[in-house]
Design goal:
Blueprint lengths: L42 H16 L7 E3 L5 E3 L19 H25 L1
Length: 121
Amino acid sequence: MCMTLIIQPLNHHKKGEDQHYKPFGPANETENDPDLRPRIIHEDTRLLVRQTSKISSAFKSRLIGFRGDIVGVSEPINFLYSPSKLTWKGKKFVTSDQLENAREKKLKKLKAKKANRRIQI
């Protein structure tokens, strides 16, 4: 059993005949976006989002913009604080080594306290 499919173009209109169509709905109708249903969010989810946004805004780093000149020197544009007030133990500048050393000292003290607690128990 063999089937053949023959496709022929359909010509519904005669030569010289214009195609007319009627627009759907009234002619002066404006297209508006459909009304959207308000999104339903569980109260726990809403509280979690509020708490995380408060936490993340508290720990955001301050971005300081820099502009460079022809020689290649970068100057800060928008300081949020006065650099003359920045001190560390009475010194004007803080290096990363100083911060790392201070951190290590704190960790040593905490480890010693934990060790003392274990001995007492």
